[in-house]
Amino acid sequence: MAFKVWINGRLFDKDDAKISVYDHGLLYGDGVFEGLRSYGGKVFRLEAHLNRLWNSAKAILLEIPMSRAEMARAVNETLEINGLEDSYIRLIVTRGAGSLGLDPNRTANPQVIVITDHITVYPEQLYRQGLEIITASTVRNHPAALNPRIKSLNYLNNILAKIECMQAGCMEALMLNHKGEVAECTADNIFLVRGGVLLTPPTDAGVLEGITREAVMELARQAGREVREVPITKHDVYIAEECFLTGTAVEVIAVVKVDSRKIGSGAPGPITRDLKERFHQLTRC
Ligand code: PMP
Q1: Contact at 8 Å (CB) between 61 and 104?
Q2: d(C-alpha 249, C-alpha 198), whole Å
Q3: Are 191 and 198 in contact (CB under 8 A)?
Q4: Sign of the torsion angle spanned by Cα atoms 46, 51, 57, 59
Q5: Which of 76, 140, 235, 253 could form a disulfide with 183 if both were Cys (CB 3.0 to 4.6 A apart)?
Q6: Domain termination residue (choose one: 79, 100, 117)
Q7: Is 151 a catalytic residue?
Q8: What are the start-end ranges of the E strands in the chain?
Q9: Do 154 and 53 share a structural domain?
Q10: Is 35 in the pocket of ligand 1 (CB under 6 A)?
């Protein structure tokens, strides 16, 4: 079935959902986006995603031409029209069409787009076995250049790291920041388990403030586990008892090998499995 796409308040068939080639979102990656999921027709943490979208837009001085409540309505309407229960949702706000120069003042009409589609997830086998990842040589964007907290339409930094890991036969890559500390993966946050304590890089290490990261930290604390946001090195990753990634698409997935080093026992660990299950309960109840 061809899903309808919502653009600026109107619904279009997928094949007719088009915006200008002069849009600065296309010309320069000038815009922001969000990736969300719905479970059983209910959008997971919609408000948190809208807050992050508005914060990203604020950071790049882009005014979203509607309210959060209107955006929430657009998301729910689009889901309903497409008859989707479990879905992936992409929100996009571009700077709008303008001249061929960079000047954002010469653009007009930011384009607001809501795409809802089926969600593609990793094969179940990868969840059972855990992922093998590598460290990319591409360094995560310097926060003073383009802060990774901004979910901008320019994802080349992540794509370059993704190309590296795909060429190495892996699905994800660990990205270090300009100081050589662990930041995050190309589309996921990272957690370690050491001495039963969860460790994850702080946001000032240059990471996206993942909605799943936040939910997993809450779940871990509710389960009586200590969670520390601390700088992490590659060495910390290599010697961790457990390692896992979090993200809207992957939810919680174990990492069992990093740069050819086996992590812990080499199989998804008990804390990872427990948090994966708790996250599953949280999204499906
Ligand atoms: N880091 C990056 C770079 C991402 O693109 C994503 C996916 N949005 C994440 C982390 C995970 O964030 P979330 O849990 O909000 O999907």
Answers
A1: yes
A2: 21
A3: yes
A4: negative
A5: 140
A6: 117
A7: yes
A8: 4-7, 10-13, 31-39, 42-43, 87-94, 97-98, 107-108, 112-117, 131-135, 173-176, 182-185, 189-194, 197-200, 227-229, 242-247, 251-258, 261-262
A9: no
A10: yes
How many angstroms does the Cα of residue 223 sit away from the middle of ligand 1? Answer: 23
170 and 56 belong to one structural domain: no
Residue where a domain stops, chosen among 98, 117, 136: 117
Ligand 1 pocket check for 65: Cβ under 6 Å = no
Q: What is the pLDDT of residues 158-216, one digit of tens each?
A: 999 999 999 999 999 999 999 999 999 999 999 999 999 999 999 999 999 999 999 99
Tens digit of each residue's pLDDT (9 = 90 or more) over 122-152: 999 999 999 999 999 999 999 999 999 999 9
- CATH number at 163 reads 3.20.10.10
Give the range of the structural domain holding residue 222, as residue numbers without chain letter. 124-284
CATH of the domain at 60: 3.30.470.10
Any idea which residue has 């389960």 for tokens? 223
- Other CB atoms within a 10 A radius of the CB of residue 72 amount to 15
158 lines ligand 1 (CB under 6 A): yes
Contact 126, 151 (CB under 8 A): no
Cβ partners under 8 Å of residue 85, min gap 6: 38, 39, 40, 41
Q: Which of 151, 162, 179, 257 is catalytic?
A: 151
Q: Name the domain count of the chain.
A: 2
pLDDT digits (tens, 9 = 90+) for 237-282: 999 999 999 999 999 999 999 999 999 999 999 999 999 999 999 9
**Shared domain check, 186 and 80:** no
- Cα–ligand 1 centroid distance for 106 (angstroms): 31
